[in-house]
DNA sequence: TAATTATTTAAGCAAATGCTTAAATATGCC
DNA sequence: GGCATATTTAAGCATTTGCTTAAATAATTA
C-alpha cells in the first residue's frame, strides 16, 4: 500500500503542515462526532431522533407501528442509539420508554430546525 | 414479518397518530438529510470536510498525505462527497482541486463549531 | 403456575462499505 | 510520440450494516 506515485512535486507543503496540525489539535473530536453523525445518518434512526425531539418519550412497540417496521428491527436501532448515549430509557412495568438524552444531543438540534424549515419551504412552494 | 405480538393494548394512539402525521409532512427531508449525515458520519470524510471548511481547496494527493491514506482510498471518498454535492472540483492542468460546496453544506456548519469548541475545552482542561 | 404481553437477544443472510492492488485516463514535458 | 505525474476506475475481499425469523427475558394477569 501507500506508494501510488504522486509525490506531488508542487505539493503545497505549507498547507499540508497546517492541515496536519489542525487535525492533531482536534483529533479527539473526530471519532466521537463522526459516530454520532453515523448514527443519525440512517433514515430510520434519524426519524426516531426527530420524533423523540418532540414527543418526550415513545416505546419500541409504538415506534414500530409509527415507522411501519418490525419490533426487533426498531429495538436494534434503539440499542445503537442507547449505546451512543443519544437516548435513554425509563421502565414502567412491561413498557420501556425511550427519550432523548438532551445533554448529548445538543449537536443534533440544528438538524431538527433544518428539517422543519425545509418542510415549511416545501409546503409553501 | 411484521407480526411480533405486541399490539400494545395501552398504545398511545393519539401519539402514534401525531407522529405519523409529523413524519408525513417532513417526509421529503429525511432521505436527503440522512444521506448527508451518513457522508459526514465517516471519520475520514468528516476530516476532509472539516479541512476544506478552512482551507478553500485541497487536491487528492495532498489529502492522502495529510490523512496518511492511499490515493485511491481518498479518491473514492471524494467521489462520494461529490456525488452528494458536498464538494465541487476545479481542474488546473493535472491537478484537481476539491472545495466545499458552501451552499449545500450550511447544515454541517454547526459541527465545525462544535469541533472547535470541544477542542478548545480539551486544551484548556 | 401457566399464559399473555413488551422487549431484547441471537443466528442467518443479503447488501453496502471501505480498503487494497492493478489498470485506465488525462495532462504536461522531453 | 513516449515517459512521468495526478487522478480515477475497476475488481477483489474482509467487515459492517440492517433486516428476518426464532428463541430468550421479564413483567402481568388469570
Write structural notes for this entry.
The structure is a homodimer of 125-residue chains. With 125 residues, chain A is mainly alpha-helical. Chain A has one domain (16-124): Winged helix-like DNA-binding domain superfamily/Winged helix DNA-binding domain (Arc Repressor Mutant, subunit A). Chain A contains five helices and two strands, in the order H-H-H-H-E-E-H. In chain A, strands 1-2 form a two-stranded antiparallel sheet. In chain A, helix 3 crosses helix 4 (71-83). The first copy, chain A, is elongated and about 65 Å long. The N and C termini of chain A lie far apart (51 Å). At the A-B interface, helix 1, helix 2, helix 3 and helix 5 of A face helix 1, helix 2, helix 3 and helix 5 of B. The first copy, chain A, binds a DNA duplex (30 and 30 nucleotides) through helix 4.
Descriptive keywords:
homodimer; mainly alpha; Arc Repressor Mutant, subunit A; two-stranded antiparallel ribbon; 10% strand; elongated; DNA-binding
Amino acid at each position: 500500500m501507500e506508494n501510488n506515485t504522486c509525490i506531488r512535486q508542487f505539493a503545497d507543503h505549507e498547507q499540508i503542515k497546517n492541515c496536519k496540525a489542525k487535525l492533531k489539535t482536534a483529533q479527539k473530536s473526530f471519532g466521537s462526532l463522526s459516530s454520532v453523525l453515523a448514527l443519525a445518518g440512517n433514515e430510520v434512526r434519524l426519524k426516531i431522533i426527530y420524533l423523540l425531539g418532540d414527543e418526550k418519550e415513545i416505546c419500541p412497540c409504538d415506534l414500530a407501528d409509527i415507522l411501519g417496521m418490525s419490533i426487533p428491527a426498531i429495538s436494534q436501532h434503539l440499542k445503537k442509539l442507547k449505546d451512543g448515549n443519544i437516548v435513554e430509557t425509563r421502565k414502567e412495568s412491561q413498557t420501556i420508554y425511550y427519550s432523548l438524552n438532551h445533554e448529548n444531543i445538543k449537536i443534533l438540534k440544528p438538524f431538527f430546525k433544518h428539517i422543519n424549515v425545509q418542510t415549511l419551504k416545501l409546503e409553501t412552494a
